[in-house]
Amino acid sequence: MTVFPNAKINIGLTITGKRSDGYHNIETVLYPLKIYDVLEIIPNPDGEGLEFSISGESLAIPEEENLCVKAFRLLEERYRLPAVKMHLHKDIPSGAGLGGGSSDAAYTLRLLNDLFGLGISREGLKDYARLLGSDCAFFIDNEPVYAFGKGDDFRPVRVDLSDYFLVVVMPDLAIATARAYAGVRPRKPLFSLEAKSSNPPEEWKALVQNDFEETIFKEFPELSGIKESLYAAGALYASMSGSGAAVYGIFREKVHLPELEGDCRVFYDAG
Ligand SMILES: C[C@@](CO)(OP(=O)(O)O)[C@H](O)COP(=O)(O)OP(=O)(O)OC[C@H]1O[C@@H](n2ccc(N)nc2=O)[C@H](O)[C@@H]1O
Ligand SMILES: Nc1ncnc2c1ncn2[C@@H]1O[C@H](COP(=O)(O)OP(=O)(O)O)[C@@H](O)[C@H]1O
Protein backbone atom coordinates (compact mmCIF):
# COMPACT_ATOMS: atom_id res chain seq x y z
CA MET A 1 0.00 0.00 0.00
CA THR A 2 1.23 3.52 -0.84
CA VAL A 3 0.63 6.68 1.21
CA PHE A 4 1.78 10.27 0.88
CA PRO A 5 3.28 11.76 4.07
CA ASN A 6 2.78 15.53 3.96
CA ALA A 7 4.76 18.46 5.35
CA LYS A 8 3.67 21.13 7.88
CA ILE A 9 4.33 24.76 8.66
CA ASN A 10 4.43 26.49 12.02
CA ILE A 11 2.26 29.60 12.24
CA GLY A 12 3.98 31.52 15.04
CA LEU A 13 6.26 29.86 17.55
CA THR A 14 7.03 31.07 21.07
CA ILE A 15 9.65 29.33 23.17
CA THR A 16 8.39 29.86 26.69
CA GLY A 17 10.88 27.97 28.84
CA LYS A 18 13.58 25.34 29.19
CA ARG A 19 12.41 22.06 30.74
CA SER A 20 14.19 19.78 33.18
CA ASP A 21 14.33 17.04 30.47
CA GLY A 22 16.46 19.35 28.27
CA TYR A 23 13.61 20.15 25.87
CA HIS A 24 11.79 23.47 25.62
CA ASN A 25 8.16 24.34 26.22
CA ILE A 26 6.69 25.98 23.15
CA GLU A 27 3.44 27.41 21.80
CA THR A 28 2.80 27.12 18.08
CA VAL A 29 0.14 26.41 15.48
CA LEU A 30 0.85 23.44 13.21
CA TYR A 31 -0.80 23.43 9.80
CA PRO A 32 -0.61 20.62 7.17
CA LEU A 33 0.91 21.42 3.76
CA LYS A 34 0.36 19.95 0.29
CA ILE A 35 4.02 18.93 -0.13
CA TYR A 36 4.57 15.18 -0.02
CA ASP A 37 6.94 12.23 0.29
CA VAL A 38 5.85 8.81 -0.97
CA LEU A 39 5.88 5.76 1.31
CA GLU A 40 5.13 2.22 0.20
CA ILE A 41 4.93 -0.80 2.51
CA ILE A 42 4.17 -4.27 1.15
CA PRO A 43 4.28 -7.71 2.77
CA ASN A 44 7.43 -9.66 1.86
CA PRO A 45 6.52 -13.34 2.37
CA ASP A 46 9.90 -14.56 1.06
CA GLY A 47 11.91 -12.20 3.28
CA GLU A 48 12.62 -11.58 6.95
CA GLY A 49 12.02 -8.49 9.08
CA LEU A 50 12.35 -5.16 7.27
CA GLU A 51 13.84 -4.54 3.81
CA PHE A 52 14.16 -0.76 3.50
CA SER A 53 15.03 1.34 0.44
CA ILE A 54 15.04 5.05 -0.25
CA SER A 55 15.12 7.38 -3.29
CA GLY A 56 14.79 11.09 -4.06
CA GLU A 57 16.40 13.81 -1.89
CA SER A 58 19.40 12.24 -0.20
CA LEU A 59 19.65 12.00 3.59
CA ALA A 60 23.10 11.72 5.13
CA ILE A 61 22.05 9.18 7.75
CA PRO A 62 22.38 5.41 8.17
CA GLU A 63 19.26 3.32 7.50
CA GLU A 64 18.63 2.55 11.20
CA GLU A 65 18.40 6.30 11.94
CA ASN A 66 15.72 6.85 9.35
CA LEU A 67 12.51 7.71 11.19
CA CYS A 68 10.56 5.19 9.06
CA VAL A 69 12.86 2.42 10.22
CA LYS A 70 12.67 3.66 13.82
CA ALA A 71 8.86 3.62 13.62
CA PHE A 72 8.94 0.04 12.28
CA ARG A 73 11.32 -1.07 15.07
CA LEU A 74 9.10 0.55 17.71
CA LEU A 75 6.09 -1.52 16.64
CA GLU A 76 8.16 -4.63 15.89
CA GLU A 77 9.19 -4.77 19.57
CA ARG A 78 5.55 -4.77 20.68
CA TYR A 79 3.53 -6.53 17.94
CA ARG A 80 3.97 -9.58 15.76
CA LEU A 81 4.72 -7.94 12.38
CA PRO A 82 5.16 -9.96 9.17
CA ALA A 83 8.24 -9.33 7.00
CA VAL A 84 7.83 -6.22 4.85
CA LYS A 85 9.48 -4.22 2.09
CA MET A 86 9.36 -0.48 2.71
CA HIS A 87 10.29 2.16 0.16
CA LEU A 88 10.51 5.88 0.94
CA HIS A 89 10.74 8.48 -1.83
CA LYS A 90 11.87 11.82 -0.34
CA ASP A 91 10.68 15.07 -1.84
CA ILE A 92 10.08 17.14 1.31
CA PRO A 93 13.34 18.98 2.03
CA SER A 94 15.04 18.00 5.27
CA GLY A 95 16.39 20.48 7.85
CA ALA A 96 13.60 22.73 6.60
CA GLY A 97 11.26 23.04 9.57
CA LEU A 98 8.67 21.27 7.41
CA GLY A 99 8.50 18.12 9.56
CA GLY A 100 9.12 15.68 6.71
CA GLY A 101 10.91 13.04 8.78
CA SER A 102 8.28 13.28 11.52
CA SER A 103 5.53 12.82 8.95
CA ASP A 104 7.26 9.78 7.43
CA ALA A 105 7.42 8.23 10.91
CA ALA A 106 3.77 8.96 11.71
CA TYR A 107 2.62 7.57 8.35
CA THR A 108 4.71 4.43 8.92
CA LEU A 109 2.89 3.84 12.24
CA ARG A 110 -0.49 4.50 10.63
CA LEU A 111 0.18 2.27 7.64
CA LEU A 112 1.53 -0.68 9.65
CA ASN A 113 -1.50 -0.40 11.96
CA ASP A 114 -3.92 -0.44 9.00
CA LEU A 115 -2.12 -3.08 6.91
CA PHE A 116 -1.73 -5.62 9.68
CA GLY A 117 -4.84 -4.84 11.76
CA LEU A 118 -2.84 -4.06 14.91
CA GLY A 119 -5.87 -2.37 16.47
CA ILE A 120 -3.96 0.62 17.85
CA SER A 121 -6.28 3.55 18.61
CA ARG A 122 -5.67 7.12 17.34
CA GLU A 123 -4.47 8.12 20.83
CA GLY A 124 -2.28 5.01 21.00
CA LEU A 125 -0.68 5.92 17.67
CA LYS A 126 -0.03 9.45 18.97
CA ASP A 127 1.65 8.05 22.07
CA TYR A 128 3.97 5.90 19.92
CA ALA A 129 4.62 8.92 17.67
CA ARG A 130 5.62 11.03 20.69
CA LEU A 131 8.43 8.53 21.33
CA LEU A 132 9.85 9.30 17.88
CA GLY A 133 9.83 13.13 17.93
CA SER A 134 7.97 16.17 19.21
CA ASP A 135 6.38 16.96 15.83
CA CYS A 136 5.48 13.41 15.00
CA ALA A 137 2.11 13.00 16.77
CA PHE A 138 0.64 15.96 14.86
CA PHE A 139 0.73 13.90 11.66
CA ILE A 140 -1.54 11.18 13.07
CA ASP A 141 -4.70 13.34 12.79
CA ASN A 142 -3.07 15.88 10.45
CA GLU A 143 -5.50 18.69 11.31
CA PRO A 144 -4.56 22.28 12.21
CA VAL A 145 -3.76 22.43 15.94
CA TYR A 146 -2.47 24.70 18.64
CA ALA A 147 0.51 22.77 20.03
CA PHE A 148 1.91 23.33 23.50
CA GLY A 149 4.18 21.68 26.07
CA LYS A 150 7.03 20.05 24.14
CA GLY A 151 4.96 20.78 21.04
CA ASP A 152 3.22 17.41 21.23
CA ASP A 153 0.08 18.31 23.20
CA PHE A 154 -2.67 19.61 20.97
CA ARG A 155 -5.95 21.46 20.86
CA PRO A 156 -7.82 21.97 17.56
CA VAL A 157 -7.75 25.52 16.08
CA ARG A 158 -9.90 27.16 13.46
CA VAL A 159 -7.24 28.07 10.90
CA ASP A 160 -8.18 27.52 7.26
CA LEU A 161 -5.85 28.62 4.47
CA SER A 162 -7.71 26.83 1.69
CA ASP A 163 -8.82 30.15 0.14
CA TYR A 164 -5.24 31.47 0.10
CA PHE A 165 -2.20 30.71 -2.07
CA LEU A 166 0.79 29.42 -0.10
CA VAL A 167 4.37 29.63 -1.34
CA VAL A 168 7.14 27.72 0.48
CA VAL A 169 10.75 28.66 -0.31
CA MET A 170 13.59 26.32 0.63
CA PRO A 171 17.12 27.68 0.21
CA ASP A 172 20.10 25.42 -0.28
CA LEU A 173 20.91 25.04 3.42
CA ALA A 174 19.69 22.84 6.26
CA ILE A 175 19.26 23.79 9.92
CA ALA A 176 19.46 21.20 12.70
CA THR A 177 16.57 21.59 15.16
CA ALA A 178 18.64 20.95 18.33
CA ARG A 179 21.13 23.64 17.34
CA ALA A 180 18.35 26.13 16.64
CA TYR A 181 16.81 25.55 20.09
CA ALA A 182 20.21 25.96 21.75
CA GLY A 183 20.49 29.53 20.39
CA VAL A 184 17.18 30.90 21.67
CA ARG A 185 16.40 32.64 24.96
CA PRO A 186 12.90 31.66 26.24
CA ARG A 187 10.35 34.42 26.86
CA LYS A 188 6.82 34.93 28.11
CA PRO A 189 4.24 35.13 25.30
CA LEU A 190 2.75 38.63 24.83
CA PHE A 191 -0.67 37.20 23.94
CA SER A 192 -2.35 33.87 23.30
CA LEU A 193 -1.33 32.48 19.92
CA GLU A 194 -4.20 30.03 20.28
CA ALA A 195 -6.68 32.92 20.29
CA LYS A 196 -4.92 35.15 17.75
CA SER A 197 -4.46 32.44 15.12
CA SER A 198 -8.22 32.47 14.52
CA ASN A 199 -7.85 36.09 13.31
CA PRO A 200 -7.52 36.21 9.49
CA PRO A 201 -3.96 35.94 8.01
CA GLU A 202 -4.29 39.61 6.94
CA GLU A 203 -3.79 40.49 10.65
CA TRP A 204 -0.95 38.10 11.48
CA LYS A 205 1.95 40.33 10.39
CA ALA A 206 1.59 42.50 13.49
CA LEU A 207 0.68 39.63 15.84
CA VAL A 208 2.28 36.32 15.01
CA GLN A 209 6.02 35.74 15.21
CA ASN A 210 8.48 32.86 15.17
CA ASP A 211 11.06 33.16 17.99
CA PHE A 212 13.68 31.22 16.01
CA GLU A 213 13.89 34.00 13.40
CA GLU A 214 15.88 36.39 15.58
CA THR A 215 18.90 34.13 15.97
CA ILE A 216 18.61 32.14 12.73
CA PHE A 217 18.22 35.30 10.57
CA LYS A 218 21.43 36.70 12.15
CA GLU A 219 23.29 33.55 11.16
CA PHE A 220 21.65 33.24 7.72
CA PRO A 221 20.68 36.76 6.50
CA GLU A 222 19.55 35.27 3.16
CA LEU A 223 16.50 33.87 4.99
CA SER A 224 15.45 37.33 6.08
CA GLY A 225 15.98 38.38 2.43
CA ILE A 226 13.56 35.65 1.29
CA LYS A 227 10.96 36.81 3.81
CA GLU A 228 11.33 40.40 2.54
CA SER A 229 10.98 39.19 -1.08
CA LEU A 230 7.73 37.42 -0.16
CA TYR A 231 6.34 40.60 1.40
CA ALA A 232 7.55 42.63 -1.61
CA ALA A 233 5.66 40.18 -3.87
CA GLY A 234 2.44 40.91 -1.94
CA ALA A 235 2.36 38.30 0.84
CA LEU A 236 -0.22 39.01 3.56
CA TYR A 237 2.00 37.15 5.99
CA ALA A 238 5.47 35.61 5.71
CA SER A 239 7.53 33.64 8.21
CA MET A 240 10.19 31.02 8.65
CA SER A 241 8.65 27.62 9.49
CA GLY A 242 9.72 26.08 12.81
CA SER A 243 13.49 25.99 13.21
CA GLY A 244 13.99 26.69 9.49
CA ALA A 245 15.33 26.95 6.90
CA ALA A 246 12.10 27.05 4.83
CA VAL A 247 10.29 30.40 4.63
CA TYR A 248 6.66 30.63 3.53
CA GLY A 249 4.35 33.38 2.32
CA ILE A 250 0.55 33.47 2.38
CA PHE A 251 -0.98 35.30 -0.60
CA ARG A 252 -4.51 36.29 -1.56
CA GLU A 253 -3.84 35.60 -5.24
CA LYS A 254 -1.71 33.21 -7.27
CA VAL A 255 1.92 34.41 -7.67
CA HIS A 256 5.01 33.28 -9.54
CA LEU A 257 8.42 34.15 -8.09
CA PRO A 258 11.07 33.30 -10.73
CA GLU A 259 13.60 35.55 -8.95
CA LEU A 260 13.69 33.07 -6.03
CA GLU A 261 13.75 29.92 -8.14
CA GLY A 262 17.44 30.19 -9.12
CA ASP A 263 18.84 29.59 -5.63
CA CYS A 264 15.92 27.89 -3.89
CA ARG A 265 13.28 25.19 -4.30
CA VAL A 266 9.94 26.98 -4.51
CA PHE A 267 6.68 25.13 -3.82
CA TYR A 268 3.52 26.87 -5.09
CA ASP A 269 -0.02 26.52 -3.76
CA ALA A 270 1.23 24.36 -0.86
CA GLY A 271 -1.59 25.19 1.59
C1 LIG B 1 11.00 23.17 15.97
C2 LIG B 1 9.83 22.28 15.65
C3 LIG B 1 8.56 23.12 15.67
O1 LIG B 1 7.44 22.42 15.20
O2 LIG B 1 9.88 21.65 14.39
P1 LIG B 1 10.99 21.62 13.20
O3 LIG B 1 11.39 23.00 12.89
O4 LIG B 1 12.13 20.78 13.68
O5 LIG B 1 10.27 20.96 12.05
C4 LIG B 1 9.69 21.15 16.73
O6 LIG B 1 9.62 21.71 18.02
C5 LIG B 1 10.82 20.15 16.68
O7 LIG B 1 10.26 18.89 16.64
P2 LIG B 1 11.14 17.61 16.16
O8 LIG B 1 11.86 17.99 14.89
O9 LIG B 1 10.22 16.45 16.15
O10 LIG B 1 12.22 17.56 17.28
P3 LIG B 1 12.69 16.35 18.24
O11 LIG B 1 13.21 15.25 17.37
O12 LIG B 1 11.65 16.03 19.25
O13 LIG B 1 13.90 17.04 18.99
C6 LIG B 1 15.11 17.38 18.37
C7 LIG B 1 15.90 18.24 19.34
O14 LIG B 1 15.32 19.56 19.39
C8 LIG B 1 15.31 20.07 20.71
N1 LIG B 1 13.92 20.32 21.14
C9 LIG B 1 12.88 19.78 20.43
C10 LIG B 1 11.59 20.05 20.83
C11 LIG B 1 11.37 20.87 21.96
N2 LIG B 1 10.13 21.17 22.38
N3 LIG B 1 12.42 21.38 22.64
C12 LIG B 1 13.70 21.13 22.25
O15 LIG B 1 14.64 21.61 22.87
C13 LIG B 1 16.01 19.03 21.58
O16 LIG B 1 17.38 19.40 21.64
C14 LIG B 1 15.87 17.75 20.78
O17 LIG B 1 16.91 16.85 21.01
N1 LIG C 1 12.60 9.91 6.80
C1 LIG C 1 13.30 11.01 7.11
N2 LIG C 1 13.13 12.13 6.38
C2 LIG C 1 13.82 13.25 6.70
N3 LIG C 1 14.68 13.36 7.72
C3 LIG C 1 14.88 12.26 8.48
C4 LIG C 1 14.20 11.05 8.19
N4 LIG C 1 14.59 10.15 9.10
C5 LIG C 1 15.46 10.77 9.90
N5 LIG C 1 15.67 12.04 9.54
C6 LIG C 1 16.53 13.02 10.22
O1 LIG C 1 15.65 13.95 10.89
C7 LIG C 1 16.14 15.29 10.79
C8 LIG C 1 15.18 16.25 10.10
O2 LIG C 1 13.90 15.85 10.17
P1 LIG C 1 12.76 16.58 9.35
O3 LIG C 1 11.50 16.29 10.12
O4 LIG C 1 12.76 16.20 7.93
O5 LIG C 1 13.12 18.09 9.31
P2 LIG C 1 12.82 19.31 10.24
O6 LIG C 1 13.24 18.97 11.65
O7 LIG C 1 13.62 20.37 9.64
O8 LIG C 1 11.35 19.56 10.15
C9 LIG C 1 17.40 15.21 9.98
O9 LIG C 1 18.46 15.22 10.90
C10 LIG C 1 17.34 13.88 9.27
O10 LIG C 1 18.62 13.34 9.08
List the keywords.
Ribosomal Protein S5, domain 2, four-stranded mixed β-sheet, binds adenosine-5'-diphosphate, alpha+beta, 2 domains, 271 residues, binds 4-diphosphocytidyl-2-C-methyl-D-erythritol 2-phosphate, 28% strand, four-stranded antiparallel β-sheet, Alpha-Beta Plaits
Largest sheet report: 4 strands, mixed
How many helical stretches? 9
Q: What is the CATH architecture annotation of the largest domain?
A: 2-Layer Sandwich
Our estimate of the beta-strand percent is 25-35%
CATH class of the largest domain: Alpha Beta
CATH topology of the largest domain: Ribosomal Protein S5, domain 2
Mean pLDDT: 96
Order of helices and strands: EEEEEHEHHHEEEHHHHEEHE
Helix content: 25-40%
Shape: globular
Rg calculated over all Cα atoms? 19 Å
Structural class by helix and strand composition: alpha+beta
Which runs of at least 5 residues are low in confidence (pLDDT < 50)?
Answer: none
Pathway: Isoprenoid biosynthesis; isopentenyl diphosphate biosynthesis via DXP pathway; isopentenyl diphosphate from 1-deoxy-D-xylulose 5-phosphate: step 3/6
Enzyme class: transferase
Active site: 8, 135
Domain GHMP kinase N-terminal: 66-139
